[in-house]
Specification:
The complex is a heterodimer. Chain A is an alpha+beta fold. Helices cover 39% and strands 33% of the residues of chain A. In chain A, β3 (23-30) and β4 form a beta hairpin. The longest helix of chain B has 19 residues, at 150-168. Chain B is an alpha+beta fold. Chain B has helices at 22-33, 129-136, 140-147, 150-168, and strands at residues 12-14, 38-42, 57-61, 73-77, 84-92, 96-100, 111-112, 116-124. Chain B has a 7-stranded antiparallel sheet with strand order 2-3-8-4-5-6-7. The chains are: A alpha+beta, B alpha+beta. β4 (33-35) of chain A pairs parallel with β2 of chain B.
């Protein structure tokens, strides 16, 4: 699925996320049940910074701008990393378009 | 974020319950049950042998409107170690409980009931409906037998027979009886 910078993305409601030992552990819910052996993910510390901004309120472009200010890096550098992460989050069904 | 180090990049990786510490597993199970959701994971160790074997999948369900009862196999977080424990309730008061692994000699330290995350409502491979109803929840008789050490004795015999059978057919494993 192509990532569109002008779109809003948000986390799906069907998951439980908990920060543990510096990583965000994410477990999708299937019919209200989580299966730790079937599907469980760990998001890195910088991934958490992106994850926290995926609230459906800002466009991806705005999120990238905000991250580039926070991390004092160019938009282009941030964009490549964020698009790669969002692509994975979308393919795993952890985020959706607002 | 654009650091040379791979760790600095925003990344997501797949993990499984075996790779988590007991404390981390407890925190995740708690996150599920406090929101009223059920959670499945792989049980470790043979402390609940023969009812739950090492490597079996257990389903933890929150109590919701029901109350913990003597004989229930529960998942709880130990107050001092913060480890996730799956053992059977052998005694309880209005706010405290005592649990024990069926295959363990010693009882666990007394804990507040607020440490209970939920009860084991299913195991996989699946057992019979009789087993599910009588041995994992409200298993008062099993609780008594566990308390007097019978299950542990019974477990040793079953373990011995299991090991002997596996030796006969050439299957090898290195399991601890009570971990």
């Amino acid at each position: 699925m192509a990532i569109d910078l002008s779109k809003h993305y948000r986390k799906t409601n069907d998951l439980i996320a908990r920060e543990i030992e510096g990583e965000l552990v994410i477990v999708p819910l299937k019919s209200g049940i989580g299966n730790l052996d079937a599907e469980m993910y760990a998001l890195s510390a910088t991934g958490i910074a992106v994850w926290n901004l995926l609230d459906g309120q800002s466009t991806l472009e705005e999120i990238i701008k905000s991250l580039s200010e926070e991390y004092q890096a160019s938009n282009e550098e941030i964009k490549a990393d964020v698009i790669e992460l969002l692509d994975e989050l979308l393919s795993k069904g952890l985020i959706i378009e607002r | 974020m654009s650091d040379d180090s791979a760790d600095a990049r925003p990344a997501i990786k797949r993990i499984d319950s075996i790779s988590l510490s007991s404390q981390a597993l407890g925190a995740i199970v708690k996150a599920f049950t406090e929101k009223g959701n059920q959670i499945k994971f792989t049980a470790r160790g043979d402390s609940m042998f023969p009812f739950i074997k090492d490597g079996e999948t257990v389903l933890v369900s929150p109590y919701g409107q029901t109350q913990p009862d003597r004989g229930d196999i529960i998942a709880y977080i130990d107050s001092s170690t913060k480890d996730l424990i799956v053992h059977r309730i052998i005694a309880l008061t209005s706010d405290m409980f005592s649990a024990k692994g069926d295959c363990c000699l010693q009882k666990d330290p007394i804990q507040p009931q607020s440490n209970i995350l939920g009860y084991i409502s299913k195991t996989s491979p699946p057992k019979s409906a009789f087993y599910e109803n009588k041995f994992t929840k409200n298993g008062q008789l099993i609780s008594f037998l566990s308390k007097i050490g019978f299950i542990q004795f019974f477990g040793i015999i079953l373990k011995y027979l299991d090991k002997t059978y596996k030796n006969l057919i050439g299957f090898h494993e290195d399991n601890q009886l009570c971990s």
